[in-house]
Amino acid sequence: MIRSLADYLHLAAAYVRFNLRAHLEYRGAFFSQVVSMFINDGAWVAFWILFFRRFPVLHGWTVTDVISLWAVVTAGFGLAFGIMGNAFQLASSIAQGEIDVWLLQPRAVLPHMLLGRSAPSAWGDALFGFVVYLGFVRPDWPHAFVFVFMSLIVGVVFIGFAVLCGSLSFFVGHAGALADQWRNALISFSTYPPTLFQGAVKVLLYTAIPAGFVSYLPVEALRSMSAVDVLLCVGGALLVLTTGVTAFYWGLRRYESGNLVSLNG
Amino acid sequence: MRAECLKSISKYSWIGYTAVRSELAYSAANVSRIIFMATVLYVFMRLWSVVYEGAGVERLGGLTETQMLWYLVATESIIMSMPRLWHEVDQDVRTGALAVHLIRPLSYAAAQFGRSTGERVVRFAINLMMGSVVAILFVGPIPFSVAGLSMFALVLPMAFVIDFFGAMLVGLCAFWLESTQGVALIYSRLMMLLGGLMVPLEVYPDSVQPILRALPFAAILNAPGRMLVAPSSALFVHCLEVQTMCLVVYGFAVFALHRYALKRVFVNGG
Lengths: 265, 270
Hints:
The complex is a heterodimer of chains A (about 260) and B (about 270). With about 260 residues, chain A is an all-alpha fold. Helix content of chain A is about 75%, strand content about 0%. Chain A starts with a helix and ends in a 13-residue tail after the last helix. In chain A, about 45% of the residues are buried. The radius of gyration of chain B is 20 Å and the shape is globular. Chain B starts with a helix and ends in an 8-residue tail after the last helix. The relative contact order of chain B is 0.13.
C-alpha cells in the first residue's frame, strides 16, 4: 500500500516536471498567465481590503480572516489544478470518448488521466495563496504548518468535486456546461465569509456545493488551531473525494469509446 | 454613396441577426448562465444585507438596500453579457483564420462588432430578466421613471460599444503577445474593481471617486447602473461626456491598432 502510494507520488512528480517543461516551451504565455492570475487574485483581495476599510467587521469576520480565506482557497485550487489540470477537461473528454488512451496505460485510469495536464494559470493561484498568507497574515510556525496542510486538503476537495462534476458526462451526455457551473458555484460561495449564509443554504454548502470544506472549516482551523476542525476538514475532503472517485468508476462502466486516434504527449 | 452605406449597415445587421439566432439556439448555455447569475446575485444580496444591518443606516452611497440589489442586477447583467470577443480575435490571429476573413467583402472589425453585439443583446436581455426576478423575489421592486429608463436606454448602447472597443484592443494584442488570456483577465478585473461592479463608486473614498468616474470602466458599469436605480440629469450629462470621450479615444486606438496589425499579416499560399 505504502509502496504503491510512493510509486504514484513519483509518477505525480514526473508529470509535474514534464508539464512544467512543456509550459516553459512557451514561456511568454506561461508567465503572462501566472502573473495575470496573481494580479487577478490580488484585485479581489484589494477589493476586500477596501471593503473592510469602509465596513470594518462583517458578522465577526475581519479583513485578516478574509485574506486567510482567499489564501487557503487560492493555494488549494492552484495546487490541485496545477498538478491535476486535466480535471477541468474531464466532462468533455468523457462526452467525446477521448479517454481510451488512458485506459490502455498500466496505471489506474483516474489519477493518471488527471495528472496528464497542468493548468498554467493555476500556478499563479498557488503562488498568490502562499505569498499573501506569509506576507499579510505573517504566521508563526504552527500556523504556517497548518496552512500548508489545509491547502493540500482544500486541493483534495477541489479535485474530488471536479471529478464528481466531470463524471456527470457518463450519465447525462455532454455535461461540460453543467460541470463548469457547479464548479463556479463552489468557487463563488467559497470566496465569501460564511457568516453571510444561514439556514438551508448553509446545509447546501456542506453537501451539494461543499464550500464549507474548501474555505470555512480551513479558516476556522487556522483561527482556532483546533484539532477537531482539522479533522473535520480531512473527513470532509475524504468524503468528497470518495464520492467523486465512486461516481467516476461507476460511470466508467457506461463509457463508450469515440474511436478517436489520439496520442498523449 | 448613401446606398453603399445603407448596404454596409444591412450587411452587418444580418451578421448581428445571425448571432442573435445562434445565441438563442443554445438553450443549455443560457440556462447555465441564468443559474450562475442567480447564484451571484444571491451571494451579493446576502453580503449587502449584512452590511446594511451592521452599518445601521438606511442608505449607503445614496442607495437603499433595495436599490443596491437592483444596481447589482444592472451591473452584473452588463458584465455577464460580455462575449469572449478577445478570445475570438486571438484565435483568428493565432490560427490564421484572419486571412480568410480578410478576403471577404467585409470589414473584420465591423463584422466582429455585428456578431458580438447580436450575442450580447440576447445575453443581456436574459440576464436582466432573470436578475429582475431574483431582485423582486428577495427585495421587491423599485419605482422606475420614464426619464430614468430613457437615460438608461441611451447610455447602455454606448457602454456596449466602448466595451467592444476595449475587448477588440485586448484581442488585437495577439499580434504581439504569445497569449492574450492574461491581458483579458487583468482587463476584466480592472473593470470589476474600478468600474463599480459590486460596489457603486459612491461608496469608495471621496478622494478617488473623481479619478474613477473619468475612466472608461465607470462609463460601462457604474453609469448605466446608477441611471437605472437613481437617475439624475447631472450624472447623465457627465456620463455622456465621458462616454463620448471614451468612444473617440478607444475608437481611434482600435482603428490605428487594427490598421497597423493588418500590416503584419503574412499569407503563405497553400
